[in-house]
Write a structure and sequence with these properties.
There is one protein chain. By secondary structure, the chain is α/β, with parallel strands linked by helices. The protein has 2 domains: about 50 residues, no CATH class; about 100 residues, 3-Layer(aba) Sandwich (D-Maltodextrin-Binding Protein, domain 2), CATH 3.40.190. The protein has 7 helices and 5 strands. The chain has a 5-stranded mixed sheet. Strand 2, helix 5 and strand 3 form a beta-alpha-beta unit. The relative contact order is 0.16.
Length: about 170
């Protein structure tokens, strides 16, 4: 989007585009309230936004990335290299049913007890600081954003993707 704007693609198509950073809870609410015409969201959270009693008036139209890159990041010295290793550690939870369902399924499928994961309600805005200051041991991230940020900060981390532990955590078309 930024490249298209920089190269003048929007202008060439007769579009006046202003790119703004969405709020912490995602662009979905901006689009739903009419404050934005188009937003970028995460496939992990879209389901809860488009179905049920609290559905938002938004429509998913395309995927920007081919495969879901979300997973769990932790400091390397914590030894959290897979869902089973989350037991006994603190995890920053958004407290959403789909998020906790995915964590539960992956932890149990990997051979551990979900109840042994210490859930800390938190919407971590700065993953680097949260990990460095031991606010939590592990965080659900989207690699292209937070993973890159942790690498740029020089953090030694472990990272595993949900798709590597439970194929139901991703969707594909074969």
């Amino acid at each position: 989007m930024y490249v298209a704007q920089k190269k003048g693609f929007y202008k060439d198509a007769g579009l006046e585009v202003k790119i703004v950073q969405g709020p912490e809870n995602g662009a979905d609410s901006l689009v739903a309230t009419g404050e934005g015409d188009f937003g970028v969201s995460f496939q992990d959270t879209m389901a809860s936004y488009v179905v049920g009693a609290g559905a938002l008036p938004v429509t998913a139209i395309a995927a920007i990335i081919q495969h879901n890159t979300s997973g769990i990041i932790s400091l390397k010295d914590k030894g959290i290299t897979s869902p089973v290793k989350m037991a006994g550690h603190t995890y920053a939870t958004w407290e959403t049913p789909i998020e906790q369902g995915i964590i539960k399924r992956c932890v149990e499928a990997d051979g551990s007890d979900y109840n042994q994961v210490k859930m800390i309600p938190s919407t971590v805005a700065d993953e680097v600081s949260a990990l460095k200051t031991d606010q939590v041991d592990c965080i659900w991230i989207f690699w292209a954003w937070a993973g890159e940020k942790c690498e740029l900060a020089g953090l030694a981390t472990n990272y595993f993707m949900f798709k590597d532990f439970d194929a139901r955590s991703t969707t594909t078309r074969r």
